[in-house]
Amino acid sequence: MWQIVTGIFSQNLRILTKFGITAHFSHSAW
Questions:
Q1: What is the pLDDT along the chain (30 residues), one digit of tens a residue?
Q2: Cα–Cα distance between 23 and 13 in angstroms, integer?
Protein backbone atom coordinates (compact mmCIF):
# COMPACT_ATOMS: atom_id res chain seq x y z
CA MET A 1 0.00 0.00 0.00
CA TRP A 2 2.72 2.45 0.99
CA GLN A 3 4.64 1.62 -2.16
CA ILE A 4 1.68 2.70 -4.29
CA VAL A 5 1.20 5.92 -2.34
CA THR A 6 4.91 6.72 -2.53
CA GLY A 7 4.95 5.99 -6.26
CA ILE A 8 1.98 8.27 -6.94
CA PHE A 9 3.43 11.01 -4.73
CA SER A 10 6.85 10.84 -6.41
CA GLN A 11 5.20 10.87 -9.85
CA ASN A 12 3.08 13.91 -9.00
CA LEU A 13 6.10 15.64 -7.47
CA ARG A 14 8.11 15.00 -10.65
CA ILE A 15 5.26 16.41 -12.80
CA LEU A 16 4.89 19.48 -10.59
CA THR A 17 8.64 20.03 -10.65
CA LYS A 18 8.66 19.81 -14.45
CA PHE A 19 5.80 22.28 -14.73
CA GLY A 20 7.46 24.56 -12.16
CA ILE A 21 10.75 24.59 -14.08
CA THR A 22 8.91 25.14 -17.37
CA ALA A 23 6.93 28.03 -15.89
CA HIS A 24 10.13 29.50 -14.45
CA PHE A 25 11.96 29.42 -17.78
CA SER A 26 8.90 30.69 -19.64
CA HIS A 27 8.60 33.60 -17.22
CA SER A 28 12.33 34.32 -17.52
CA ALA A 29 12.08 34.25 -21.32
CA TRP A 30 9.69 37.18 -21.24
A1: 889 999 999 999 999 899 888 887 777 765
A2: 15
